[in-house]
Amino acid sequence: NIKFTYEQEENGQIPFLDALITRNEKGEIKAKVYQKKTHTNQYLSYESHHPVHQKLGVATTLLQRANTITSNPDDITVKEENICSTLSTCHYPA
């Protein structure tokens, strides 16, 4: 009993896995990181009693995902700033 879901394209955009694929009027495609509206930006707190490599892995993974998925350099900069502010609320050092 496997049930499948799918997304409909709206305004030339469709979420696919971790990416939001956008198609403009010329048919050009660009991608950026997609998060659902219900995403809470809560990650492993830096003040927790986890090993440091796990805490660094959170930051590394988020930044690597932004650089891998996002196709526009301006969007990468915006996403990196968002990641930095989000991690600072989780007490990560600059």
Describe the overall structure.
The protein has helices at residues 52-69, 73-89; strands at residues 13-16, 19-23, 29-33. The longest helix has 18 residues, at 52-69. The model has no long low-confidence stretch (mean pLDDT 92). Helix 1 (52-69) runs antiparallel to helix 2. The termini are far apart. The protein has 2 helices and 3 strands.
Helix content: 25-40%
Mean pLDDT: 92
What is the terminal-to-terminal distance? 47 Å
Radius of gyration: 16 Å
Shape: globular
Proportion of strand residues: 5-15%
Largest sheet: 3 strands, antiparallel
Structural category is: alpha+beta
State the order of secondary-structure elements, H for helix, E for strand. Answer: EEEHH
**Which regions have little confidence, pLDDT < 50, spanning 5+ residues?**
none
The strand line-up of the biggest sheet is 1-2-3
Question: Number of helix segments?
Answer: 2
According to DSSP, the number of beta strands is: 3
